[in-house]
Design brief:
The structure is a single chain. This protein has about 400 residues and is an alpha+beta fold. The chain folds into four domains: about 1-65; about 65-160, PAS domain (Beta-Lactamase), CATH 3.30.450; about 165-235; about 240-399, Heat Shock Protein 90, CATH 3.30.565. Helix content is about 50%, strand content about 20%. The protein has eleven helices and twelve strands. It has helices at about 20-65, 85-90, 100-105, 115-120, 160-200, 205-235, 245-265, 285-300, 330-335, 360-370, 395-399, and strands at about 70-75, 80, 125-135, 135-145, 150-160, 240-245, 265-270, 280, 305-315, 315-325, 370-380, 380-390. Strands 2-1-5-4-3 form a five-stranded antiparallel sheet, with helices on both faces. A five-stranded mixed sheet has the order 7-9-10-12-11, with helices on one face. Strands 6-8 form a two-stranded antiparallel sheet. Strand 1 and strand 2 (about 80) form a beta hairpin. The radius of gyration is 33 Å and the shape is elongated.
Length: about 400
């Protein structure tokens, strides 16, 4: 890499430079090259430092001006940054205290399954959870700092109090409407049965087709109302936690869905691990969640397919897996799968009936059990649903 040329001009006519002069010039050239290179590096470092300071100043300005509290911690979970909103919310001094986050923030500001969250974050996975501070509800998003390795984490808190209140009002309106619709719907179905008997006695095929169509729509409406009322009931949580047996949950699935699977030529198989632990919760609620997942798996698996239900001990809890050979779920739809009234519009599911509330009910029930539910899926290769709940003997349940 040529940095320049050293030129020596001598006033002595026809006088050649000696080897000693040449060596001296080579030494001078080498030292000059080092000096020039260092100077260029220094200029570049100064320029990058200035750019970094400007970027840091701009970032500080943005973070300080936002109303959202922002916190950052290093690998040792010591606080390294807090914007003005975070300082005010958590009453942090200036300069920032050197305590770790678990000792610095109130216990209710940390995720419920704190150690599991830390394990996920160390694997460079983001995490979100809700916290309530005073009368304000925040959605806390935690992201990893660093590219090749974890250098720390940043948390941003969004005030969702108003959204939660709107959601509560919406749920209350839906609940009241569902209650108001239940009785007239039952009356309509009873009258339809009488009409159906009358039409059958006259043998009018066209009228019979219309009656069956009405019956089908009323049954769909009834499923939606029943789903909403089920959501309302499980949304109240679990009043009394009792020891639940995973084997009974598997038995409930077989009792309710074996006939349905046989009708669809689906092989419904179960695998129960050795010495599977019990878990704390509501047996009836949990059974309903597992039945909903398996029923969905059967619905979305083509004839002659397979659905397997497995359970085993896993990480101080009980893990259920529902594996199917169905059509799979596109990646862009997977984040919406547990939303209320969500129904995928992918090709091949047009004929599948449902209210769009089954998996929303599953999510609520598993949350009630302090567990987790997630899925892995690929279009054309089937889906695996995972449900994890803490074992009855785990430390998380003894507190």
């Amino acid at each position: 890499n040529v940095l320049g040329v050293l030129m020596v001009i001598t006033g002595r006519h026809n006088k050649l430079l000696s080897m000693e002069d040449v060596h001296l010039m080579e030494m001078l050239a080498a030292q000059a090259a080092v000096a020039i290179s260092h100077g260029q590096l220094f200029d570049r470092l100064r320029r990058l430092t200035n750019e970094l300071e400007i970027a840091h100043s701009q970032l500080n300005t943005v973070l300080s001006s936002t109303d959202n509290p922002v916190l950052a911690v290093n690998r040792q979970f010591k606080l390294i940054f807090a914007n003005l909103a975070a300082r005010q919310l958590f009453q942090l001094d200036d300069p920032l205290p050197t305590k770790t986050i678990p000792k610095l923030l109130p216990l209710h500001a940390l995720p419920r399954n704190y150690k599991q969250v830390l394990r996920k974050l160390r694997e460079q996975k983001g995490y979100s959870y809700e916290i309530t501070l005073g009368d304000t509800v925040y959605l806390c998003h935690v992201a990893t700092l660093g590219t090749n390795r974890v250098e720390g984490w940043v948390a941003v808190l969004n005030d969702v109090t108003q959204l939660k209140e709107l959601d509560r009002i919406k749920s209350e309106m839906v609940r009241m409407t569902s209650h108001d619709l239940k009785n007239p719907l039952q009356a309509a179905m009873a009258n339809l049965e009488l009409l159906q008997e009358d039409v059958e006695s006259h043998g009018n095929e066209e009228m019979m087709y219309s009656v069956r169509s009405i019956e089908k729509q009323l049954e769909r409406m009834n499923r939606i109302i029943r789903g909403i009322l089920d959501l309302e009931r499980v949304g109240e949580g679990i009043k009394s936690f009792e020891s639940c047996d995973p084997r009974l949950s598997i038995r409930a699935v077989l009792d309710e869905l074996q006939h349905f699977a046989t009708e669809r030529n689906i092989n419904l198989d179960v695998v129960i691990g050795d010495d599977v632990a019990n878990f704390l919760g509501d047996q009836e609620q949990f059974d309903r969640a597992l039945i909903n997942i398996v029923e969905n798996a059967i619905k979305f698996t083509p004839d002659n397919g397979q659905v397997k239900v497995c359970t085993q001990n896993h990480e101080q809890g009980v893990l259920f897996k529902v594996i199917d050979t169905g059509i799979g779920i596109p990646a862009e739809l997977q984040s919406q799968i547990f939303a209320r009234f969500f129904r995928g519009r992918q090709q091949g599911v047009e004929h599948v009936s449902g209210s769009g509330l089954g998996l929303s009910l599953v999510k609520t029930i598993i949350d009630n059990h302090k567990g987790r539910v997630w899925l892995e899926s690929e279009v054309g290769k089937g889906t695996t649903f995972y449900v994890w709940v803490p074992a009855a003997t785990s430390k998380s349940n003894s507190k």
